């Protein structure tokens, strides 16, 4: 495949000590040579690959100096895109970095589309689709754990696993063919069906395991959407603030602040909590009052976790009971706050309403009980154990959907093999499973989907 040479600013927008303009493509080195002057006067084209050069960028005609830069020269195929890559490190700052970008665009590069560098790495065969998606996850990773998941995926762990399953399916299909073509034994059927069932079960249970990791994967990726509810004055804002103070808030540029829901991320023992509508709780004390009954029900329904706060110094009220009723079928924890005050709340009452859910007692005023609360939260979602870093969670919605499809299809094959369904019908199901799994790693995927996936990337990646 022939590509042109693309360029983009690869560092985030805004002020920074340095910024990087990246060039990739067959003309990358030649374009850089048109505008780069180093004290050594040697052309980049004559320099060794994977070297760094100090010098100035100049206008190609007037030789007017544009910027002082460090330039990395990396020839393909040992680069991110497998093409020749030049990275120009210039001064941070919007004006300076844009001048550099404009300069290389004027000299023959084309402005890259979002994700185009990664797309090239994929199209040039350096990474597969799930690895490309991992790059995207890495950019968005909000916690160390999310980062590890993405790194593992980028490293090809998921790809290798999927590859192994597909290999098993192929071998099964081949064996079926052999049995049909060379019926050395009397009954081909008798050999073939149990084999399909056994191999099918193997694949099915591996897929199931992958799916089981997906809930955690989604949480790691998107954050555990958490809503704090409770009557006025029980300590919702105090709880929110102590969660934020204890766990350094995660900086994020998630679009959310433009809607009426505001999200804030904190990292609780490796579980990223997305505290939803915190501003609503802060400003008016009441979720319902701020965004209306319908909307707040929606917010609750979409929550992965609800923290229901009660006041230890007051008896359980009707309103409290109603809140218990609302969250009945949801994932929630009870926080009994203000334990420093004389108790009027019957813990028996609370336990009865909570129906086996955890009840944590806190005095946010005295900063007591927060540790236990955090432990309970982490325990709910990670079985209380700190996961090893080499877990390979499936966290991508597209992958999860495909795994569900693959599971259903292989189950069809297993079911059919156990009944009187003709072998060639079963072969179709097995083949289909192989294809669906291939879509995860981009082996059997349509071009339009690829374009759409890569367009979700940030510019310059
Ligand atoms: P919200 O209306 O549910 O958001 O409650 P706030 O967090 O605004 O707290 C209401 C009042 O209770 C404030 O004056 C807090 O300082 C106080 N408060 C919060 N937690 C505790 C606690 O554990 N003990 C005591 N004694 N007061 C608390
Ligand atoms: Zn409040």
TrEMBL record:
GO terms classed as biological process: tRNA methylation; tRNA wobble uridine modification
Cofactor needs: K(+)
Gene3D superfamilies according to UniProt: P-loop containing nucleotide triphosphate hydrolases, Probable tRNA modification gtpase trme, domain 1, tRNA modification GTPase MnmE domain 2
Main location: cytoplasm
A Pfam family the protein falls into: MMR_HSR1
Binding site for GTP: 233-238, 252-258, 277-280
Cofactor binding, per record: Binds 1 potassium ion per subunit.
Domain TrmE-type G: 223-382
Record-listed (6S)-5-formyl-5,6,7,8-tetrahydrofolate binding positions: 22, 87, 126, 461
Record: residues binding K(+): 233, 252, 254, 257
Molecular function in Gene Ontology: GTP binding; GTPase activity; identical protein binding; metal ion binding
EC number: 3.6.-.-
Alphabetized UniProt keyword annotations: Cytoplasm, GTP-binding, Hydrolase, Magnesium, Metal-binding, Nucleotide-binding, Potassium, tRNA processing
Subcellular localization(s) per the UniProt record: Cytoplasm
Residues reported to bind Mg(2+): 237, 258
GO cellular component, one term: cytosol
Subunit structure and binding partners: Homodimer. Heterotetramer of two MnmE and two MnmG subunits.
Matching PANTHER family: TRNA MODIFICATION GTPASE GTPBP3, TRNA MODIFICATION GTPASE GTPBP3, MITOCHONDRIAL
Entry's family note: Belongs to the TRAFAC class TrmE-Era-EngA-EngB-Septin-like GTPase superfamily. TrmE GTPase family.
Function according to Swiss-Prot or TrEMBL: Exhibits a very high intrinsic GTPase hydrolysis rate. Involved in the addition of a carboxymethylaminomethyl (cmnm) group at the wobble position (U34) of certain tRNAs, forming tRNA-cmnm(5)s(2)U34.
Protein name stated in the entry: tRNA modification GTPase MnmE
The gene coding this protein: mnmE
């Amino acid at each position: 495949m022939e590509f042109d040479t693309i360029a983009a600013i690869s560092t985030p927008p805004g002020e920074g000590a340095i910024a990087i303009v990246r060039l990739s493509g067959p003309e990358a080195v030649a374009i850089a040579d048109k505008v780069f002057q180093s004290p050594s006067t040697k052309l980049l084209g004559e320099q060794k690959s994977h070297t760094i050069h100090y010098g100035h960028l100049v206008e190609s005609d007037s030789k007017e100096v544009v910027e002082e830069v460090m330039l990395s020269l990396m020839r393909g195929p040992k680069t991110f895109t497998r093409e020749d890559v030049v990275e120009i490190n210039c001064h941070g700052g919007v004006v300076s970095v844009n001048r550099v970008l404009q300069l290389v665009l004027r000299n023959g590069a084309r402005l890259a589309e979002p994700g185009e560098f990664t797309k090239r790495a994929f199209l040039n065969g350096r990474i597969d689709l799930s690895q490309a998606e991992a790059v995207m996850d890495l950019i968005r990773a909000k916690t160390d754990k999310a980062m590890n998941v993405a790194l593992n995926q980028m490293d090809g762990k998921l790809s290798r696993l999927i590859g192994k399953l597909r290999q098993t399916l192929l071998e099964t299909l081949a064996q079926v063919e052999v049995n049909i073509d060379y019926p050395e034994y009397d009954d081909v059927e008798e050999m073939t069906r149990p084999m399909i069932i056994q191999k099918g079960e193997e694949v099915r249970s591996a897929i199931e395991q992958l799916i089981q990791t997906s809930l955690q994967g989604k949480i790691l990726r998107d954050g555990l959407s958490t809503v704090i509810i409770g009557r006025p004055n029980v300590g919702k804002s105090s709880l929110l603030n102590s969660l934020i103070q204890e766990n350094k808030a995660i900086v994020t540029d998630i679009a959310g602040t433009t809607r009426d829901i505001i999200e804030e991320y904190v990292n609780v023992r490796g579980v990223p909590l997305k505290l939803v509508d915190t501003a609503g709780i802060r400003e008016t004390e009441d979720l319902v009052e701020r965004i209306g009954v319908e909307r707040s029900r929606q917010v609750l329904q979409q929550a992965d976790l609800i923290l229901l706060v009660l006041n230890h110094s007051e008896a359980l009220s009707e309103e409290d009971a109603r809140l218990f009723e609302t969250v009945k079928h949801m994932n929630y924890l009870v926080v009994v706050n203000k334990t420093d005050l004389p108790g009027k709340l019957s813990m028996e009452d609370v336990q009865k309403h909570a129906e086996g859910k955890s009840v944590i007692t806190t005095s946010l005023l005295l900063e007591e009980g927060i540790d236990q609360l955090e432990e309970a939260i982490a325990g709910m979602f990670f079985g209380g154990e700190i996961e090893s870093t080499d877990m390979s969670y499936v966290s991508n919605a597209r992958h999860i959907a495909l795994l569900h499809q693959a599971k259903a299809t292989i189950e069809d094959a297993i079911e059919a093999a156990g009944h009187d369904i003709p072998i060639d019908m079963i072969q179709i199901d097995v083949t289909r499973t192989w294809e669906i799994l291939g879509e995860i790693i981009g082996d059997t995927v349509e071009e339009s989907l690829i374009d759409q996936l890569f367009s979700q990337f940030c510019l310059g990646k």
